[in-house]
Design a protein that fits this description.
Layout lengths: L6 E4 L2 E4 L5 E5 L8 H13 L4 E6 L2 H4 L20 H8 L3 H14 L2 E6 L2 H9 L5 E3 L7 H8 L5 E4 L5 H13 L5 E6 L12 H11 L3 E5 L5 H8 L4 E5 L17 H18 L8 H4 L7 E4 L14 E4 L10 H4 L21
Parallel strand pairs: 3-4, 3-10, 4-5, 6-7, 7-8, 8-9, 9-10
Antiparallel strand pairs: 1-2, 11-12
Helix pairs in contact: 1-4, 6-7, 9-10
């Protein structure tokens, strides 16, 4: 099917425009080294309302080198005191699991995709039939990687955390020139956890306008506020880290949502998108019944034929059965053509 510029199609889902937001549960390291946990996460994410489960495809050696000099040590934030190589050893999802996890997602009826971090991981994901890809915020500046992923001709979602407008523009142009015709951008505050004040969701809406692409939020904050606000501003992809239980120790647990929290967020996001609706001024079905309780002009004192209508004997009150209030000044001072009883809705035929 032909898609408009601000939509993409992933499998059988159109994303963007007025279509329902696409909600991604990011597994990341929350499997805690257990393929059984990983499979439980897939099913729990489906039950919690996620449209998609996402993993990451790397090894410590494809991400960095085993080196202990200061450049490779983390000195602040959630992973303060860690060495990059040892952190990735703890956090990675073994490649030998990934085809099995993809099959498990298919059984569960949830979409499955991954973030590759180098050419070897792209080649591996191609070998297991990956249908679309994610580019992480930290790899936004890795234009050779973006070019290689885009060359596969599959939908791509790129996170833009830490990216300047120039860097985002370069990444978008690189993907497009390399063959990616279906591209979406996610606003992301690349802090773990993120706080609301750092999200700058207005930048997400600005990206949609500037690039003509569907946009959304990769959200590392706790709670639903960021996701709801993003959808209200036009975001149509929401990505959140998902775990079975934050007490299961792993590098991502502290900023991940548990199933009940994720389910509540999904409900909030769906409700927010319905609440935004469209720019329509038509009376809704729910409102229609209440039209009866609008105001109108009623006789509030008995009036004899030929008597003048005054502010004392006619008033604008509820319900709506009488003359519309905009005619009130027009009928004041006119004479009644017949006797009118208190509680009668006034009409033009009653006025001389």
């Amino acid at each position: 099917m032909a898609l408009s510029g601000n939509t993409i199609k992933i499998r059988d889902r159109v994303i963007g425009g007025d279509y329902p937001a696409y909600i991604i549960a990011e597994m990341s390291a929350n499997h805690a080294g257990s393929i059984d946990y990983a499979k439980e996460i897939i099913h729990a994410a489906k039950e919690a309302g996620a449209d998609c489960i996402k993993i990451q495809t790397y090894t410590a050696d494809t991400m960095t080198i085993d080196c202990r000099n200061p450049y490779f040590n983390i000195t602040e934030g959630t992973w303060k005191g860690e060495n990059l190589y040892s952190l990735y050893q703890k956090a990675y999802t073994p490649w030998e699991w990934q085809a099995e996890l993809k099959e498990e997602a298919e059984k569960a009826g949830i979409d499955f995709f991954s973030t590759p971090f180098d050419r070897t991981s792209v080649d591996f994901l191609e070998s297991i039939g990956m249908e679309f890809y994610k580019i992480a915020s930290f790899e936004l500046v890795d234009l050779p990687l973006i070019r290689y992923v885009a060359s596969k001709g599959k939908p791509m979602i790129m996170s833009t955390g830490m990216g300047s407008l120039e860097e985002i523009t370069e990444a978008v142009e690189t993907a497009r020139c390399a063959g990616c015709s279906q591209l979406a951008l996610l606003r992301c505050a690349s802090a773990y956890p993120a706080v609301a004040g750092d999200m700058n969701l207005a930048a997400m809406a600005a990206m949609e306008k500037r690039f003509g692409l569907p946009v959304g939020l990769s959200d590392h904050s706790m709670g639903s506020v960021g996701a709801v606000a993003a959808v209200a501003l036009g975001g149509r992809i929401i990505e959140k880290h998902f775990c079975l239980d934050r007490s299961i120790q792993n590098p991502d647990a502290s900023f991940s949502m548990e199933p009940a929290e994720f389910s509540a967020m999904v409900k909030d996001v769906r409700a927010a998108q319905r609440a935004v609706g469209s720019a329509s001024f038509e009376v809704t079905g729910a409102e229609r019944g209440n039209l009866a309780f609008r105001r109108s002009v009623f006789v509030v004192q008995d009036i004899r034929a030929g008597e003048i209508l005054t502010e004392d004997n006619i008033r604008i009150i509820r319900p709506s059965n009488g003359l519309a209030p905009k005619y009130y000044d027009l009928v004041l001072g006119k004479k009644a053509v017949s006797d009118l009883k208190r509680g009668t809705p006034l009409s033009m035929e009653m006025v001389q």
